[in-house]
Amino acid sequence: MTKIRASARGEDCTLNFPGICSFDSLKVVLCHRNGAGAEMKSEDHDAAYGCFDCHQVLDGQAPRPSGFTREAMLDLFERGVLKTQAILRRKKLI
Predict the structure, then answer these.
(1) Where are the alpha helices (DSSP H) in 1-94?
(2) SS3 call for 85
(3) Contact at 8 Å (CB) between 15 and 32?
(4) Cα–Cα distance between 59 and 31 in angstroms, integer?
(5) 34 φ, ψ to 5°?
(6) If 0-12 CB within 10 Å is exposed, 13-18 middle and 19+ buried, where does residue 20 land?
(7) Maximum C-alpha span of the chain
(8) Which residues contact residue 57 at a Cβ distance below 8 angstroms, ignoring those fewer than 6 apart?
(9) What is the pLDDT of residues 17-35, one digit of tens each?
């Protein structure tokens, strides 16, 4: 486990998907960008802190609620990446 991945433990979810987010900092992990290829993940510095519930939806393992579009989800993910990068800079991990 990288230092950046480990840094997610105990952090707040930066995704905050409406109607989905559990706001449970005990279940926050580093959520990588989808589409990097089969069994490949994007770089850790290009990811967001996300709770288990938001991560499930982002990865397509749980359905998006009615009215929560893919575009809205990806927009919130991009915002989450920026928030996470700010935290990683404060922690001197990037």
Answers:
(1) 3-6, 52-58, 70-90
(2) helix
(3) no
(4) 9
(5) -80, 160
(6) buried
(7) 39
(8) 17, 20, 63, 64, 73
(9) 999 999 999 999 999 987 5
